[in-house]
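Saturday, quiet lab. Running sequence design on the structure tokens for the scaffold JK sent over.
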């Protein structure tokens, strides 16, 4: 009987994991919540419309987390940040975050800020980070 269970597990587990090619298993929950929003403006004063912004928060690797979000026609973006459970929120309640644009090419602009986090998803502190492309 034990041999059957072991063989069954060897056959089922790889199949189950193989079906999850582009997903992430999050068994640790969320350690903190925040919202980062702003607008990206090009050097000529026009918005970085329909592009993307990348953010990363937390201590240097391996605790850094982040992803990209789109900008709208006005260059605005909004990120509801969920810090994954393994990332400890310091006693200050804040993490160091970086925002850059665009996300899918060499960045033209970047900013770093201390972002406050809440332990409650219903009360996300909002940090506004407007990005302005510098003069060449």
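Result came back. Writing it out in full:
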């Amino acid at each position: 009987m034990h041999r059957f269970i072991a063989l069954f597990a060897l056959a089922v587990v790889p199949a189950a994991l193989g079906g999850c090619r582009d997903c992430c298993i999050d068994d640790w929950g969320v350690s903190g919540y925040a919202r980062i929003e702003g607008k990206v403006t090009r050097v000529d004063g026009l918005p970085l419309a329909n592009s993307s912004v990348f953010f990363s928060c937390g201590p240097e690797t391996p605790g850094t987390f982040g992803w990209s979000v789109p900008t709208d026609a006005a260059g605005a973006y909004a990120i509801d940040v969920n810090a994954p459970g393994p990332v400890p929120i310091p006693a200050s309640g804040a993490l160091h975050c970086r925002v850059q644009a665009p996300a899918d090419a060499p960045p033209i602009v970047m900013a770093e800020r201390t972002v406050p986090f809440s332990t409650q998803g219903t009360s996300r502190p909002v940090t506004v980070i407007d990005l302005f492309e510098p003069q060449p």
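Notes for JK: Residues 27-132 form a domain with the Immunoglobulin-like fold (CATH 2.60.40.1120). The mean pLDDT is 83. Ask whether to fix the surface positions before the next round.
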